[in-house]
Amino acid sequence: MHRLMVRGVVRGAAASIDSSSRWVLPGPKLLHTARPCLSDAGSSGDRRTQSPETSASSAAAPSTVDSADKNKSNSERERSQPTTAAATASTLSDSFGRFHSYLRISLTERCNLRCKYCMPADGVQLTQKQQLLTSAEVLQLASLFVAEGVRKIRLTGGEPTVRKDLTEIVAQLKATNPLLESVGITTNGLMLTRQLVGLQRAGLDALNVSLDTLRAARYEQITRRKGWDRVMAGIDLAIQLGYRPKVNCVLMKGFNEDEICDFVELTRDRNVDVRFIEYMPFTGNRWDTDKMVPYRAMLETIRARYPAFEALPNGPNDTSKAYRVPGYRGQMGFITSMTEHFCGSCNRLRITADGNLKVCLFGNTEVSLRDALRSPGCSEDDLRCLISAAVKRKKKQHAGMLNLSQMENRPMILIGG
């Protein structure tokens, strides 16, 4: 009987400590007929303090990308949903019939910024290197998930561009998974001017850039680092290369909500998709309801200046509510995780850099796929059984705002946001 670890992560603001529980897989005769059952236990892992990394460059891998593909919307790229019977039996379907075709994989816990809503000013405790997924393990897990129905993979961090082998990972994902429709990255944009051409040659399909202000001085306040002009140069390079980058902006009341219309203007001549994200509670970011700018308040601000601001169609699994100003090249979007959750259509799963599967961004129970991979005698069927058990335990929806603000969860940087 295999014993594979599941970490229920409990992290406080002052320290990052894992408390664990175990998943027990059924014996070989029951492996295909019974679901894993649960029991509780506890353990903790060694951690060390993060030090900043400011750069990493990747060698270009030979490949080509169809630039026109970059402009397809999420809904056009969505994989068709399985039938009811198939969904019930699928490894990646939960007990509410949601099929998960989108996987986010964190490649590192390291970052070259210190954004206030993402991590504490003094950084976070980093997992020891040997406890992180290797590149081979990342590719092995990705192939398993693609075989089970994942069609979209996004590489995150920390900051994925600090990985020297990022380009190679993208190239290998594209080369070894013909059923994979999209490989994207979420980045802070600091390294794009150095790395994006190589990433495009490797087959990168999509690009998300985190940028919370269009003012250089304010950028330093938010990120505790310089580099705003480099990020803007990276966004413009992405557009020139045929991408339609998504620019993710976390709005915070009393800090950057006065730039809402400035971001709208960014879409006038640039083919970008600016997406405002409601401020969300995570360990270490000093979350409170007074900082959050609700989606409806954003809409009122924009429509006061742009009365013709219009809604656009959304795909069945889109997390962003799409809008645009008529005649502008780009578009806007609103990710309303706090005020109008989209749990009912969620098709996303996450793997952290240390190999834990999170079935919900706001959940604090994690299943260690790393421990399973490294367990002697653990087969792909065992992995599928473990993944299926975790997915089928996914809740119907996350807790409300007030409950989330009191729930202990990893800092965003350790989740892979």
Automatic annotation (TrEMBL):
Pfam family, one: Radical_SAM
Classification via CDD domains: Radical_SAM, Twitch_MoaA
Compositional bias of kind Low complexity: 51-66
Keywords per UniProt: 4Fe-4S, GTP-binding, Iron, Iron-sulfur, Lyase, Metal-binding, Molybdenum cofactor biosynthesis, Nucleotide-binding, S-adenosyl-L-methionine
Regions of compositional bias (Basic and acidic residues) in chain numbering: 67-80
Classification via SMART domains: Elp3
Position of the signal peptide: none
Reactions performed catalytically: (8S)-3',8-cyclo-7,8-dihydroguanosine 5'-triphosphate = cyclic pyranopterin phosphate + diphosphate; GTP + AH2 + S-adenosyl-L-methionine = (8S)-3',8-cyclo-7,8-dihydroguanosine 5'-triphosphate + 5'-deoxyadenosine + L-methionine + A + H(+)
Residue ranges constituting the Radical SAM core domain according to the UniProt record: 95-317
Pathway: Cofactor biosynthesis; molybdopterin biosynthesis
EC number(s) from the headed UniProt entry: 4.1.99.22, 4.6.1.17
Cofactor(s) essential for the protein: [4Fe-4S] cluster
Gene Ontology MF terms: 4 iron, 4 sulfur cluster binding; cyclic pyranopterin monophosphate synthase activity; GTP 3',8'-cyclase activity; GTP binding; metal ion binding
Start and end residues of each stretch annotated as Disordered: 35-89
Keyword Iron: yes
GO biological-process terms attached to the record: Mo-molybdopterin cofactor biosynthetic process
Recorded family membership: In the N-terminal section; belongs to the radical SAM superfamily. MoaA family.
Job description of the protein: Isoform MOCS1A and isoform MOCS1B probably form a complex that catalyzes the conversion of 5'-GTP to cyclic pyranopterin monophosphate (cPMP). MOCS1A catalyzes the cyclization of GTP to (8S)-3',8-cyclo-7,8-dihydroguanosine 5'-triphosphate and MOCS1B catalyzes the subsequent conversion of (8S)-3',8-cyclo-7,8-dihydroguanosine 5'-triphosphate to cPMP.
Subunit structure as annotated in this protein's UniProt entry: Isoform MOCS1A and isoform MOCS1B probably form a heterooligomer.
Protein name stated in the entry: Molybdenum cofactor biosynthesis protein 1
Source species: Anopheles coluzzii (African malaria mosquito)
Lineage of source species: Eukaryota, Metazoa, Ecdysozoa, Arthropoda, Hexapoda
